[in-house]
Amino acid sequence: MEDRIKIIRQKMEKLGLDGVYLTSRTSHRYFTKFDNEDGVLLVTKDNTYAFEDFRYTEVAERLLKNVYTVIQPKGKRTEWLGEILKKESIERLGVEDYSLSLYEHSLLKSDVNVNLVPIGNMIGEMREIKDSWELEQIEKAQIITDMAFEHILGILSTDITETDVAAELEYFMRKHGAEDKSFETISISAEKTSLPHGVPENVKLKKGFFTMDFGATVNGYHSDMTRTVCIGKADDEMKKLYNTVLRAQLSALEYLESGGLDSKEADSIARKIIYEDYEGYFGHSLGHSVGLEIHEKPALSPKSSGLLKVGNVVTVEPGIYIPSRYGVRIEDMVAIEERGIKNFTMSPKKLIEL
Q1: Per the domain annotation, does 349 fall within a domain?
Q2: How many angstroms separate the CA atoms of 120 and 109, rounded?
């Protein structure tokens, strides 16, 4: 926690700020490793404050007392915040314009006598580079996800429903150490697999492709994996489509493993392979970063610019989607290292026919 506060103070100095007011749930967890959807933080040049309501004060004092002054605020937020800002002689206060509501901004502007300065994606840029502890949490989350995939393969059949599968995956992950699912689980079969983000329904699985996109969270950090299997035997056309997606993914992973860091080029490598026979049927980007949020920056996409950095964690997830027929997506999650990548995803990728 101390290292992150040191970095934010360096950024404050560059921007000429006297303090930064952190109001997003994600920032609260990033700077404290403690989740409170209503907690807010204030970092000044010399002090750090954690404002926690009655429900969380006791645990916050236990976890944060060596780094933060924990305060249980009472009354109107702008009043107790204004008192601290006056005490700290704050004139220029950085605020998270990405998360601060227009309503709260208007209250601060009218009730607190300071100059509010939007800090844009300053915290997001800090979060792009994962440290060793963060990488450990992501790896733990993916281990649980891999275990859930192995488990679900043993019960897939046309006798269970899409919602059965989603519920079983989520239950298994919670039972094996996840604090939550990463996002709303996707488990869709047959013609619905042409929908990249199809919603599970209470309908039995059909013969054909079956796509599962799911993940776990551990200490707030997400995993993200997609696997497409086949219920029954795949015909030659289905095998061609599946193997095209697999070849595209393996080629992009090989580029990253070889030290390639151009995020746009990674997307292009996969896209060129898919477009040889399926142009127009890969409509999303190759991947996105993962961390405390399931979609973070940087991305691997045709619109990307710049190079990936050591500590970035990104998905590699090409797909082909033939409307009203079927689709395939294969997704791994990797960390960029000094030499190549670490692939957190251990689940098999060759076409599985059940």
Answers
A1: no
A2: 18
